[in-house]
Amino acid sequence: MAFWKRIQMKINKKWYPKSVLVGSPVSTEQLCKRIGAESTVSPADVRAVLTSLAPIMADYMSQGRSVKLDGIGSFYFTAVAVKGGSERREDVTTNQIAGVRVRFNPETRFTKNGSGTGKHATRGLSDTLIEWEEWKVEEKKTKKKGVGEVEIHGS
Question: For residue 32, how many other CB atoms are within 10 A of its CB?
Fold first, then answer.
């Protein structure tokens, strides 16, 4: 079950549903135990593979390649350029690369549309139907000192 709550956007004052994360993130150990329980490999073997995954992916991506994980999607590096750019093509150098980001594109799945006459593309990590439930946690409102803005506590 996934959770959502109502939020008002400051920019246009309109209300929207927003997903809510609950609890702590799922740990590598939890993933290893579950994958081990649902497969023929041990949690220790799963951990060994997951530990090797990041540096090997980084090595391939540093060679200018993307890494596609079936059922998940593709990962690749992009360069972050310094602000301002250059007026002339000849002035562009690697010194203008300020950092690197990892980008992710979820796998695209194609299914028949409702009428069965065409295809519908879905980009996501799973075919699981998500059931949404409204988050019913009481939120506490407190005023920030000197600013007069309302700060919402709780998720």
Answer: 21
CA distance 28 to 140: 33
> What angle is formed at CA 23 by the lines to CA 18 and CA 29, rounded to 5 degrees?
125
Contact 19, 4 (CB under 8 A): yes
The one-digit pLDDT tens for each residue of the chain (155 residues) are 889 999 999 999 999 999 999 999 999 999 999 999 999 999 999 999 999 999 999 999 999 999 999 888 999 999 999 998 999 999 999 999 999 999 999 888 777 766 666 666 666 666 677 888 999 876 655 444 444 443 433 44
Tell which residue, 125, 136, 130, 155, has the closest CA to residue 2.
130
